[in-house]
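[step 3/7] fold_predict: job queued, chain A
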Amino acid sequence: MKAKRQKKILELIQTQTISTQEEVAEALRKEGFNVTQATVSRDIKELGLIKVSIGNDQSKYALPTEVTVSERRLKFMIKEFVLKYDYSENIIVLKTPPGTAQAVASVIDNAQWEEVIGTVAGDDTILLVVKPVTSVKKVLQKINSYMD
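[step 4/7] structure written:
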């Protein structure tokens, strides 16, 4: 029953704007699940759901992987923290001030650029793995446009 209920919660948050645990509980009840707010609270925690802003001081539940980075935040992070970059074949190396590489890499990961298949961040260096190699120029143009 728990697995079915949690699967239904995931379905509900992907198809509806649900902002509170009570709204989750009410939606589940409409689907035939007899739940309490405490049960919903545990399910939300186990599923790792987070609240994301949807504008106008409103938020909704989402999976962490659903979080998309705003263009403004992406531009800010790249402009403020990417000091320089270079590339070789399908690897782009971004240099940042010490302690900021992981934050910048996280924003790039969450931007879900289709050409970037992954990032690896250290303290002040980020490796972007690009696929196919012919897309490196496109990714560099994106980065450069954010740095202007």
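[step 5/7] annotate
The chain is about 45% helix and 20% strand.
The domain at 71-147 is CATH 3.30.1360.40 (Gyrase A; domain 2).
exit 0
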